[in-house]
Amino acid sequence: MIDDIKEILFTEEMIERRVAEMGAQISEDYAGKVPMLVGVLKGCYVFMADISRSISINCEIRFVSVSSYGFSSVTSGKVKIDKNLDFEIKGRDIIIIEDILDSGVTLTALRKFISEGGPASLKICTLLDKPSRREVQINSDYLGFECPDEFVVGYGLDYAERYRNLPYIGSLKPEIYS
Ligand code: IMP
Ligand code: MG
């Protein structure tokens, strides 16, 4: 598995430190409220586990399934949201928890869907951002790291469902996905 990694971009220590800071910031910003963290499956699962444990106020943990079709390393542009939520959005302080903001297509679609449910507030928290790849205008309110324009895996991020279990984030050797 590690032979497929070109370069480690974010080490376990870097991620741990940054996620702790983000959790502290959210705890401060939402003091007196009970935010609902809505994780975007499946890429968020490691980030959600860590950031939720770095939040020191009451919060609820929820998940939503979103997929862009296919196994490719670039977005298909088509986003499928599983709209059968097992929770109420109305009146809640929602924070979307996502692994990476790339073209922005996925989070734009999800933000629109959640907004239509009438939340009290809605913010976006992503571990990574690749601003150079943006196709639609959208930003993270809580961002871990800016990421170079490389396909990255690990810490929940996959290529064809593999590499999610790497404890760090690294770029994948281009011959693996081309
Ligand atoms: P967007 O709709 O293009 O912003 O795509 C966001 C989704 O694409 C993320 O939730 C990831 O699942 C996936 N994605 C984008 N870039 C990468 C990457 O470098 N590695 C792994 N998955 C990625
Ligand atoms: Mg994802």
Which tags fit this structure?
4 helices, 30% strand, Rossmann fold, six-stranded mixed β-sheet, three-stranded antiparallel β-sheet, alpha/beta, binds magnesium ion, 178 residues, binds inosinic acid, single chain
Structural account:
- By secondary structure, the protein is an alpha/beta fold.
- The protein has a single domain, classed as 3-Layer(aba) Sandwich (Rossmann fold), CATH 3.40.50.
- Helix content is 24%, strand content 30%.
- The protein is built from 4 helices and 9 strands.
- It has helices at residues 12-29, 45-53, 105-116, 174-177; strands at residues 5-10, 36-41, 60-68, 79-81, 93-101, 121-129, 142-146, 152-153, 169-172.
- The strands form 2 sheets. It has a 6-stranded mixed sheet, with helices on both faces. Strands 1-9-8 form a 3-stranded antiparallel sheet.
- The longest helix is centred in the first third of the chain and has 18 residues, at 12-29.
- The chain is globular, with a radius of gyration of 16 Å.
- Bound molecules: inosinic acid and magnesium ion.
- Magnesium ion is lined by residues 40, 43, 99.
Provide the CATH topology: Rossmann fold
Proportion of residues in helical segments: 10-25%
Rg estimate, integer Å:
16 Å
Strand order of the largest sheet: 4-3-2-5-6-7
Q: Label the CATH architecture.
A: 3-Layer(aba) Sandwich
List the helices and strands and how they pair.
Elements: E1 5-10, H1 12-29, E2 36-41, H2 45-53, E3 60-68, E4 79-81, E5 93-101, H3 105-116, E6 121-129, E7 142-146, E8 152-153, E9 169-172, H4 174-177
Helix pairs in contact: 1-2
This protein binds inosinic acid (IMP) and magnesium ion (MG).
Magnesium ion (MG) binds at residues 40, 43, 99.
